[in-house]
Design a protein that fits this description.
By secondary structure, the protein is α+β, with helices and mostly antiparallel strands. The protein has a single domain, classed as GHMP Kinase, N-terminal domain (Ribosomal Protein S5, domain 2), CATH 3.30.230. Helices cover 30% and strands 29% of the residues. It has four helices and ten strands; from the N terminus they run E-E-E-E-H-E-H-E-E-H-E-E-E-H. The strands form two sheets. It has a five-stranded mixed β-sheet with strand order 1-2-3-5-4. Strands 6, 7, 8, 9 and 10 form a five-stranded antiparallel β-sheet that branches. Helix 1 crosses helix 2 and helix 2 packs parallel to helix 4. The chain is globular. The N and C termini lie far apart (52 Å). Bound molecules: adenosine-5'-diphosphate. Adenosine-5'-diphosphate binds next to helix 2 and helix 3.
Length: 244
């Protein structure tokens, strides 16, 4: 294990990975990479590497969970045993179960659930490598995978966190900042509808800091949203190239 750094922001105002306070990590996304799923996406958000696969809408099992007026969205978040430095048990942890619920609830408002009564949509999120902010990167990837599956949606959901380290409000905390920092505020947002679907806070912030962190996170979500749309377009651009 690496030693705990004394300072998270240096004299020049730069963070451990050289970022400025308001800077996102580098992000790449791709859709349609799993040929056996109805929709899929892969995201690399800093050192996070996450895959999302979607099945459905399809018959729901167990059947008693089916609803007469809408489809049931089920997201399963799972961290692979090799995703963190010390092997994680492959069995679902309390945290995996909590994040599965959080991700499901962040995505539900974006989907026209009422279009597919008595069915289910399953989203499987596998964290292959974790470095802080995996719930947000998972939401971003899962939303892209749902769009890739052709599921009618009101908007894409883009997510990122802001927080506080060394008394400074910063965007997109990585693992060390998340663990040693003072606070973490994950946000999921539908930019076109101007609607927040997730807002959590771990740590203590003043009202002013909360407002600053929220605004910073929303700006980050806006940038991620642009990347999501580019990733979706890229799939169809490559199809066109092949048929031309
Ligand atoms: P998020 O990943 O959304 O920030 P947490 O705040 O719960 O969620 O976790 C922060 C980070 O802690 C994770 O992204 C991951 O890097 C690390 N982490 C989570 N679970 C474990 C674990 N079992 N072992 C080692 N590191 C972990």
């Amino acid at each position: 294990m690496s030693q705990k750094p004394e300072k998270l922001i240096d004299k020049k105002g730069l963070r451990l990975d050289g970022r400025k306070p308001g800077e996102l990590r580098s992000i790449q996304m791709e859709v349609g990479i799993l040929s056996n799923a109805d929709g899929s996406a892969y995201i690399q958000h800093g050192k996070n590497k996450i895959l999302a696969g979607v099945y459905g809408p399809r018959e729901l099992h167990p059947k008693h969970l089916a609803l007469p007026d809408r489809t049931v969205l089920r997201c399963r978040y799972h961290m692979a045993p090799f995703s963190v430095q010390e092997r994680k048990s492959p069995a679902p942890s309390r945290r995996d179960i909590e994040l599965s619920k959080v991700i499901t609830e962040s995505l539900e408002p974006s989907i026209f659930l009422e279009y597919y009564p008595r069915t289910g949509i399953d989203v499987f999120v596998e964290v292959l490598q974790a470095d802080g902010g995996t719930r947000c990167a998972s939401i971003t990837a899962a939303s892209l995978a749902l769009a890739d599956a052709g599921i009618p949606m009101r908007d894409l959901v883009a997510a990122c966190a802001a927080g506080k380290i060394d008394d400074t409000v910063v965007l997109d905390l990585m693992d060390t900042e998340d663990k040693i920092g003072e606070a973490d505020v994950p946000v999921a947002f539908m930019p076109n509808l101007n609607a927040i679907t997730l807002l959590q806070m771990d740590g203590i912030l003043t009202l002013e800091e909360i407002e600053k962190a929220l605004n910073l996170a929303l700006k980050g979500c806006g940038k991620i949203y642009t990347l999501q749309k580019e990733a979706l377009k890229a799939k169809y651009a490559s199809v066109k190239e092949i048929t031309e």
